């Protein structure tokens, strides 16, 4: 294969040396030209065949695992949860062996990684892998501890499965942190198959986590009804004993459970980008292209509004959780919850619309370079938004068909409509921003740096020297009573603390002046885009936190549930809600990308 590549390069150099008068010279008559063309065609066909085979392999693995999980849901006698765990453990072990082989064998071959995709695996995506991976490992630790305490009524497989999960999560996190940008040039087909099997394994782990969460909510709601009718009758259940360690394991497992689903989805997206980059050759200009870095500059109002939204949302969330866990939750907390969304969602929609208009006013060209990461971001944004949009439309139909004039129904109806608009406008803003070409004005940046130094120097003319000289004079002044050695030591220590405080104040003042100058130097379009992006980042964070940690008013208000029936609405919410949660988290990454390129 390497000889063919060399011949292709030789062919390109020969074709470049041929005279430009192509009207009299027919290139197709040259043997070397025909040979290079056939080699390139065979290479492209082999690449497409490898992608097709690995994709079909992953599709069959996903179908097999989905059949197991669905059979467990509909027929818990024939297919148990232990059978699903055995299948997922086998897939995890296979994926683990492939990752180890990739780390120890594939990348150590000569010319294995000649190119690295600068767009793949940005720092916030890899940071989320480490964060969610650490929480998932801690979740498995709590599961092991909980199963160990209840070992008398639980199988040993419930201890072995999380142990395998800890090894798999830690190894995969290391692999994605160091090699998510690789464009591997050797063992194409084997690498593609390994990546697709690992992606399918993460997808099945996510599907099991979603279905287990739904079953947990269903059992919890049924147990609440049983406790209200038959108080104290729990003899047939495997219940945590009244000990502190068991309660810690139980509460910790419930608290960290949402991070497992987010970790699996993030890993799926990164593995898919690696799969697209197998065998990809990146041009020298594209490979050395400098990526903009995140700097907290040019934003004032966005952080203030976003922080206010986060603080108010956290208060509303805590009020909601306290009321929702009680046996008789009041409708007042639902009114407050929906009112918070009705105020926040229009602000986010208006900000996204204004940002889209500014993108249209800018004279930036569209970035048409092939970028698998950007293409995947667009697909994930559009696909994940369908979860929330689907739930909102089902909720609108149910509320319009019941009693839309009721206060709570009216608020829920407005919430659903505004949620649809916010998802659509935010997707348009992010996708439009991702496709804008970032142009670095080196001369402008250099001029800004010189002006900044001049401004800081002008604002502090000799102030530092005069302050330090006065302090030194104060230190060198002899004390009133030389015989009191303790008082002299206290004066020196106080003077040293005063010097450090003044130096710290001067550094803060310099940083403030530098920040103000940088903010004033930006154009108004870049200012507005950065303000909007930062505000939307913080708003999406609080909208991710609230449903992730148990805030589910669409299921708990009872309006849609009474309209569609318990089972139907249960399926709609618990398959749409994880996608909505993933959409908020993925939007944060896209908005950060828009922020740094603004």
Automatic annotation (TrEMBL):
It is found in: Cell membrane. It is a multi-pass membrane protein. The keyword Cell membrane applies. InterPro entries: Otopetrin. The chain crosses the membrane at residues 52-73, 85-103, 123-147, 159-177, 189-209, 254-275, 296-320, 340-358, 378-400, 412-431, 532-551, 563-583. GO terms for molecular function: proton channel activity. Keywords: Cell membrane, Hydrogen ion transport, Ion channel, Ion transport, Membrane, Transmembrane, Transmembrane helix, Transport. The keyword Plastid does not apply. GO terms for cellular component: plasma membrane. Pfam families: Otopetrin (PF03189). Residues 463-487 are annotated as: Disordered. Its main location: membrane. Belongs to the otopetrin family. PANTHER family: PROTON CHANNEL OTOP, PROTON CHANNEL OTOP3. This is Proton channel OTOP3.
């Amino acid at each position: 294969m390497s000889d063919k590549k060399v011949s292709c390069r030789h062919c390109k150099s020969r074709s470049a040396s041929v005279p430009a008068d192509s009207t009299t010279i027919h290139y197709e008559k040259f043997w070397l030209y025909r040979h290079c063309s056939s080699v390139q065609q065979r290479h492209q066909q082999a690449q497409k065949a490898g992608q097709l085979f690995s994709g079909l392999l992953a599709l069959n693995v996903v179908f097999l695992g989905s059949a197991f999980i669905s059979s467990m849901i509909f027929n818990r006698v024939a297919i148990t949860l232990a059978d699903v765990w055995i299948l997922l453990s086998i897939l995890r072990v296979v994926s683990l062996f492939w990752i180890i082989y990739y780390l120890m064998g594939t990348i150590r071959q000569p010319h294995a990684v000649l190119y690295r995709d600068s767009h793949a695996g940005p720092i916030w995506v890899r940071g989320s892998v480490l964060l969610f991976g650490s929480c998932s490992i801690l979740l498995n630790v709590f599961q092991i501890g909980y199963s160990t305490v209840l070992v008398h009524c639980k199988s040993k497989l419930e201890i072995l499965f999380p142990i395998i999960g800890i090894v798999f999560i830690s190894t995969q996190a290391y692999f994605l942190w160091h090699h998510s940008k690789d464009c591997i040039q050797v063992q194409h087909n084997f690498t593609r198959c390994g990546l697709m099997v690992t992606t399918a394994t993460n997808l099945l782990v996510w599907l099991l986590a979603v279905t287990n969460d739904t079953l947990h909510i269903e059992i919890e709601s049924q147990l609440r009804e049983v406790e209200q009718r038959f108080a104290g009758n729990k003899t047939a259940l495997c219940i945590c004993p009244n000990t502190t360690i068991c309660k810690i394991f139980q509460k910790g497992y419930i608290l960290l459970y949402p991070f497992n689903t987010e970790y699996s989805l993030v890993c799926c997206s990164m593995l898919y980008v690696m799969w697209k980059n197998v065998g990809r050759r990146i041009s020298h200009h594209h490979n050395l292209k400098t990526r903009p870095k995140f700097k907290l500059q040019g934003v004032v109002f966005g952080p203030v509004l976003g922080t206010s939204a986060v603080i108010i949302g956290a208060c509303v969330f805590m009020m909601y959780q306290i009321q929702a866990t009680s046996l008789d939750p009041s409708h007042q907390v639902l009114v407050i919850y929906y009112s918070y969304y009705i105020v926040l969602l229009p602000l986010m929609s208006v900000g996204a619309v204004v940002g889209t208009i500014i993108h249209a006013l800018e004279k930036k060209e569209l970035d048409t370079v092939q970028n698998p990461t950007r293409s995947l971001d667009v697909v994930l944004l559009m696909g994940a938004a369908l979860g929330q949009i689907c739930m909102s439309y089902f909720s609108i139909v149910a509320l319009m068909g019941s009693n839309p004039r009721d206060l709570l129904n009216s608020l829920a109806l407005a919430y659903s409509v505004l949620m649809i608009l916010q998802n659509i406008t935010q997707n348009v803003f992010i996708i439009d921003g991702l496709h804008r070409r970032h142009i670095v004005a080196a001369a402008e940046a250099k001029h800004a740096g010189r002006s900044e130094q001049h401004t800081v120097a002008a604002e502090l003319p000799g102030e530092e020297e005069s302050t330090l000289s006065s302090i030194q004079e104060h230190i060198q002044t002899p004390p009133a009573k030389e015989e009191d050695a303790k008082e002299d030591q206290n004066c020196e220590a106080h003077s040293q603390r005063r010097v450090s405080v003044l130096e710290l104040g001067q550094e803060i003042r310099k940083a403030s002046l530098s920040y103000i100058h940088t903010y004033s130097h930006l154009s108004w379009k870049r200012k507005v885009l950065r303000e909007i992006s930062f505000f939307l980042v913080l708003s999406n964070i609080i909208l991710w936190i609230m449903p992730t940690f148990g805030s589910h008013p669409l299921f708990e208000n009872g309006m849609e549930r009474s309209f569609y029936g318990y089972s139907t609405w249960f399926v709609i919410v618990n398959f749409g809600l994880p996608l909505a949660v993933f959409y908020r988290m993925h939007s944060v990454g896209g908005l950060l990308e828009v922020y740094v390129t603004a």
